[in-house]
Design goal:
It is built from 12 helices and 24 strands. The protein is α+β, with helices and mostly antiparallel strands. Keywords: Hydrolase, Lipid metabolism, Membrane, Sphingolipid metabolism, Transmembrane, Transmembrane helix.
């Protein structure tokens, strides 16, 4: 290396007094920094796009997608629906990173309080088949959905016949996300874990299909507003309903699928113990009832809802589960069931704005930054019609506060669940879009006006079914 230029520079600097050095610094270096900062800002940041959603290109794409939804299978001559169910343990074989809180930084769990499961329900009317899967996980990760789509044909199903959801426990395992944001929430990606999970999901579907029988179906909902509260605003609307889907096989075997809108976050974030939280305790309680052979839980509109109830930690889990279980078992004899033929499963692509991950009220990171940190995954709404009940799956933490508006537009027996195999952050009421809160600022990735957009999209898809 030639050191002469360096020596000459030192000699020059030695002749300067401190005032001249400061003058030189401010005259040359600071403008360079300012210029670099401006360049970086233009590359990284942009203003929030507040174009009304009805005037956007993605809305025009949505109009095309909803018009292409075909429900002819509902009215094809079919046989009575058969239904079967099964569960498979998906607890990892060894301690792995937990998923649910960024402050864990990928730390592994140290013990298992209760095992994690995937529960599968297969429905078949001789013309159409469908499967409903719910997993004791934070979400159904996009990476898992992609892997499942490749493997389902091995057992005679496709992803378009598959309705996905999760219990949304924040005390499950991770290792299923490839990008930086996913690594922070769920630890480093492990291909072995994903493959193991897929194999167990396929096993659960096969077992459920082997056990299917002609079945009758019923629906009920019970008020449980005392067990949920709005965590963005004390004055916010809540979805207080515990929804119950009852399946009774010809043999007399009975299964219930429940859905509720309270977040499964009853334990401290630094609790390094695997647990299904209150959804798992609820399912266990129901399966101990003499008239219920099998139970499952699906996270409802948890986007802005936290769990109420008395007690702390595992005591609270037990109290909430007991209260919900009692509402179901006490009213179980009053739920009437009927045989049905109508069965349809729909996956409708859901166009969105370009991502707008905000750093302030009016400024966002550019899409390429978001895609680099999180990933670029397709989104969709999923629909499942079983007899008189319509299920709609959303690719997000969907906020239950929007349920009343949707129910007014649909006027049908409706169950809306979160985490359908894609993930686009939180979808909350547009009332809160500019509120500086975790759900509405950090986790609202594709707003504004996604509240109104989802109300319209869900209502129109439900009415199609």
């Amino acid at each position: 290396m030639n050191t002469l230029p360096v020596k000459n520079l030192l000699k020059v600097l030695a002749t300067l007094n401190p005032k001249k050095i400061r003058k030189y610094y401010y005259a040359s270096f600071v403008p360079v920094l300012v210029s670099m900062a401006l360049i970086m800002q233009s590359c990284l940041l942009a203003k929030i796009d507040r174009t009304p959603y009805h005037q956007t290109d993605f809305y025009q794409q949505f109009q095309q997608q909803i018009n292409e939804v075909n429900t002819d299978s509902l009215y094809t001559k079919t046989d009575t629906i058969q239904a079967g169910w099964a569960k498979v343990n998906i607890t990892p074989d060894e301690p792995v990173a937990m998923a649910g809180y960024g402050n864990r930084w990928g730390k592994k769990y140290v013990s298992v309080h209760d095992s994690l499961w995937v529960r599968a329900f297969v429905f078949d009317n001789g013309y159409q088949k469908a499967v409903l899967l719910t997993m004791d996980m934070l979400i159904v990760p996009p990476e898992v959905t992609e892997a499942l789509e490749k493997r389902l044909p091995e057992i005679g199903f496709t992803i378009n016949q598959t309705y996905l959801t999760a219990t949304h426990t924040h005390y499950g395992y991770g290792g299923w996300a490839k990008k930086l944001v996913g690594n922070i929430i769920a630890g480093k990606y492990r291909d072995k874990l994903v493959n193991q999970l897929i194999s167990r999901i396929l096993s659960a579907i096969q077992q459920a299909e082997a056990r299917k029988q002609k079945a009758s179906f019923g629906f009920a909902q019970y008020h449980a507003g005392e067990l949920v509260y709005h965590r963005i605003s004390k004055q916010g609307n809540i979805d207080p309903w515990l929804r119950v889907f009852l399946i009774r096989q010809q043999s007399g075997a009975t299964a219930v699928i429940t859905s509720f809108a309270a977040h499964a976050t009853s334990l401290p974030s630094r609790q390094y113990i695997l647990s299904r939280d209150y959804p798992g305790a609820l399912v266990d309680s129901l399966e101990k009832h003499p008239d219920i052979d099998f139970a499952a839980f699906c996270a409802g509109g948890v986007g802005s809802h936290s769990t109420g109830g008395e007690g702390e930690h595992f005591e609270k889990i037990g109290n909430v589960a007991a209260a919900l279980s009692q509402k179901i078992t006490y009213n179980l004899p009053a739920i009437s069931t009927q045989y049905h033929q109508k069965l349809a499963s729909v996956h409708m692509p859901l166009p969105l704005r370009k991502p707008q991950w905000r750093i302030s009220e009016n400024w966002r990171l550019r899409p390429w930054v978001f895609y680099g940190l999180y990933g670029n995954y397709p989104s969709s709404l999923t629909g499942l019609r079983i007899g008189d009940v319509t299920w709609i799956g959303t690719p997000c933490d969907f906020a239950g506060e929007m349920m009343p508006a949707i129910e007014k537009k649909t006027n049908q027996q409706l169950i809306i669940t979160s985490f359908n195999g894609g993930y686009i952050g939180y979808i909350t009421s547009d009332t809160y879009y500019d509120v500086d809160h975790y759900e509405t600022r950090t986790m609202n990735w594709f707003g504004p006006e996604n509240g109104a957009y989802f109300i319209e999209a869900i209502s129109r898809l439900a009415n199609k079914l």
